[in-house]
Amino acid sequence: MPDSPIRRVLIANRGEIAVRVIRSCRELGIETVAIYSDPDRESLHVRLADQAYALGGETSAESYLVSEKVLAAAKAAGADAIHPGYGFLSENPDFVRAVDAAGLTFIGPRPLAMEQMGEKTRARSVMQEADVPVVPGSEALADGAQAAAFAADIGLPVMVKAAAGGGGKGMRRVDDPSAVAKAFDAARSEAKKSFGDDRVYVEKFLQRPRHIEVQILADTHGNCVHLFERECSIQRRHQKVIEEAPSPFLDEALRAQMGAVAVQAAKAVDYIGAGTVEFLCDAERNFYFLEMNTRLQVEHPVTEWITGLDLVALQIRIAEGHPLPFKQEDLAISGHAIEARIYAEDPQSGFLPAPGKIEHLHVPAGPYVRDDSGVVFGSEVTPLYDPMISKLSVWGQDRAQAIARLDRALGEYKVIGVTTNISFLRRVLAEPTFQSGDFDTGFIGNVIQGASEPDEKYETIAMLAAVMDAFERDEAAEAAFKPQSSAQGGGQAWRRYQLLGGRS
Known about the structure:
The protein is α+β, with helices and mostly antiparallel strands. Helix content is 37%, strand content 23%. The chain has 3 domains: 8-107, Rossmann fold, CATH 3.40.50.20; 136-204, 2-Layer Sandwich (Dna Ligase, domain 1); 210-447, 2-Layer Sandwich (D-amino Acid Aminotransferase, Chain A, domain 1). The chain has 18 helices and 22 strands. The strands form 6 sheets. An 8-stranded antiparallel sheet has the order 13-12-9-10-11-14-21-19, sandwiched between helices. It has a 5-stranded parallel sheet with strand order 3-2-1-4-5, with helices on both faces. 50% of the residues are buried. Mean pLDDT is 89; it is low at 454-459 and 469-504.
C-alpha cells in the first residue's frame, strides 16, 4: 500500500497541461479539481474536471500565481494533493512549503532540490561539485564592466544570461566585445521584469550547439532512472518549437553516458519525481550541463511515445510513496516520436503572438497521432497567456516515418480565426538539413528564410498592443480590430501591432 494514497488532485495550472493531468487522473480513478481565472471560465480544463473553482482576476499575477488563492481552492474542494503542471508555481519552493504546511501532497520534488537547481549559477556550482561537466561561465556579476572582462577572458562569442531565467528570457548572444556591457544591462532589465531577480552571468557560447535533454524519474526509495533523451535544438527566440526522441545526434555509447550523468545530477540533489536534465552538445560530441527543470516538461509526450509510459501517472504514484515499477535495464526505446508546438503566432513577423478567437478548428487524427490541447472551437487565444494552441505529436517505426506522419497530420490541422505557425512547421520538416538530422540551435535563423527574429522595438509594440486588447473588451473595439480571417492579421493584438508599428 502507498504511504499517502491520493484521492482528489487540484491542478494548479491551465490549458493543455491541466487537461493532460485530468486525463491521467481519471484513468487512475482520482478525482480532479480545476482552477481558473476570469478569461478561462469556459476553458476545456474547467469543463473536464470534476470540480472547478474561480480564482478571480485576468492575469496570471492575479490568479494562477497567487498561492493563497490556489491553496484556498484546494481546501474548499477537499483536495489532498496538488499537481503544478509546468510554469506558474511549478518550480516555486515557497509554494511547496505552503502545500506541505496545509497538509497536502505536492506532486513533484522537494523545495531544497528546486532551490539548488532553480537558480542557474547555484545549479552550476552544485553540478561542478558532483563532477558533472558544465559550460565555462561566471558567477552572477555586478555590472557590465565585469561581464566584459570575463567575456574577454574566456573568449567570444558568449551568452549573457539571467541567473533565475527560463523560456529564453534575459538571454543575449554577444559576438562583439564592445556590446557585452549593453547586453548585460538589457538582460538585467528583462530578468528583473520577468523573474523579479536581476542577477546576470556570462557563459561561453558553444559553436553549433545541440540542445539535448534527458528525462529522469526518481522515487522516495532511492531509485533513479533515465528515460532516454529528447532533441530540442529546433528553437525560436531560445524557445523550443519541435522536439523529438530519440536524438538523431546520439549513438548508443553517448546516450548511455549522458543518461548516467543525468541520473548522477539528480542524485546529487536528492531529487524526487519527474525532472529533466538539460545539456548542450558541441560538434565534437562533448556535452555540458545547462540546467535542470524540476517539473514535467512541455515536450514529455515524445518520451511517452518511445517508452510506452505515462509520466503523469508515474508522478502521482511516486508522490503516493510507490517505488518505481522498473529498473534501468527494463527500459528500451521503441521507434521514433516528434512533437510540434502549434502557436497562434506569425513566423514572418518575428513569431509575434497573434491572439484571437478560434472560429474553426479541425484537429488531425489517424494512426499514432496525438494532439494535446487546451482549446476547442470558439476558444479565445488571449494575449494574457502563452499563445500555444496545442502540442501535436506522432510516433513512427523510424525517424523518416515519424517526419512523414507529422507532416501529414499538420496538413490536416485547420485553424481559422488566428494566424498560426503550421505552415512554418511544415517548412521545417521539409528542409533537407532537418531531415538529415544535421542541425543545431541556430537552425531557424540560419536555414529557414523569412523566419526573422523581431526587432526589440517591435516586440515592445506588440506587448503594448496585447495590453491594450486586454483592457478594451467592449463590442465596438472588437468590431473595429478583430479580423474576419487569418489572412487579415490573425487576431486583435496582431492587428493593433500593425497599426501601432505603422505609426512608429
